[in-house]
């Protein structure tokens, strides 16, 4: 089997990270980040930014357990050297009936085996009165975006 290109390595790492999120796989999440990795968020999220692989893993497992969180990746763009990427995602909060869309900018370590930093940006300000937070008048369905979570959230103890 041939070695993956830097672009392919970066995308595969992002997809493994999202699978670990969806599985509430604490160790898989920890393994996705450098020990001192950071996940930045827009204003309003208590405890943000999340600093350290353990804190990031704890945060996403909490989301699955308490909000029924599921995520889909809509688009991925990666730099040629594989050290940075940007994605569009959807966060399905199935237990509370909310949907949030946004983008994230990724920075990876030198060998593209771990995430060093994520900077998240929301498609719109979070409006708790809206069950689906999205861009005004953007046709998500016509563009091929997910319109439902990828699967039911796992039960987390």
From TrEMBL:
It comes from the Bacteria. Keywords: Isomerase. The keyword Transmembrane does not apply. This is Ketosteroid isomerase. The keyword 4Fe-4S does not apply. SUPFAM superfamilies: NTF2-like. It holds the Pfam family SnoaL_2. Residues 14-117 form the SnoaL-like domain. GO terms for molecular function: isomerase activity.
């Amino acid at each position: 089997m041939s070695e993956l290109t830097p672009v392919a390595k970066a995308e595969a790492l992002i997809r493994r990270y999202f699978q670990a999120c969806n599985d509430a796989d604490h160790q898989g999440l920890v393994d996705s980040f450098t020990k001192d990795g950071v996940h930045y968020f827009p204003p309003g999220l208590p405890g943000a930014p999340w600093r350290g692989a353990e804190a990031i893993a704890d945060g996403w497992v909490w989301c699955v357990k308490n909000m029924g969180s599921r995520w889909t990746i809509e688009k991925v763009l990666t730099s040629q050297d594989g050290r940075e990427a940007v994605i569009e995602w959807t966060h399905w909060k199935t237990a509370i009936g909310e949907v949030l869309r946004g983008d994230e900018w990724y920075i990876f370590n030198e060998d593209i085996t771990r995430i060093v930093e994520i900077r998240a940006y929301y498609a719109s300000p979070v409006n708790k009165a809206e069950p689906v937070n999205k861009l005004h008048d953007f046709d998500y369905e016509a563009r091929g975006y997910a319109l439902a979570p990828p699967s039911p959230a796992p039960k987390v103890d």
